[in-house]
Amino acid sequence: MTTDRPAHPGQPSGPAAPGPAQPAADDPDADRRARRCAALAAHIRLVLGDGHHRRGLDIGSGAGGVSPHLVDLFDEQVLLDVDGDALALAHANVSAAVTAAGCSTRVRTARVDLSTAEGAPHAGDLAPLDVAFSAMALHHVRDVPRLLRTVAGLLRPGGRLVVADLEPDGGLYHADRPSFDGHDGFSHEQISSWCVAAGLHVDQLVTAYVDPKPVRGTVRHLPVFVAAATRLPG
Q1: Domain ranges of the chain
Q2: Which class does domain 51-214+224-231 fall in?
Q3: pTM
């Protein structure tokens, strides 16, 4: 599903938080991605409320676009990705945000793929989690149900999972990347059913943002969902 609606002013703004290091000046799309990261981080913050959490996991952190906005919520923030170079940038960005915020959040990285049978045995080092979140990473994951099952097993009972990603877009988002072999978005029903199968209760599933992405010379407004779920006892 796509829409030509602009992002509406009712999107959650959240309290001000330090952002990541400024992207390279030669990246013409960096401002759009930074605005999206800030908006999704604000929605994640809104879902989690005012509480403080011992450990949070950023699934598919990339270079650290969302985590810098959330450093004050956690005693420890774990950045997870399969790209070592991206993790190094993420660690630097999140650590800078911790310093700017004046908080004492510990930051560490984990280079492991929790969506594979090979990566799952290493998951125990990440538990227990109070919160796991992901922004615009699931569409790169080949086996999303396995990933969600693994992460659900790391959450303490009552722990929260918050994921944000593309809604079905017919391939528009990655139209300029013919080598892309991931998912062209997910329906609300698909994400909800996977969360339930992983032992999670879906608390919220909404279209939370509209991303104005240039696609072959035309700006297309592509919706992004946020799903929030809680691990059930047992």
Answers
A1: 51-214+224-231
A2: alpha beta
A3: 0.88
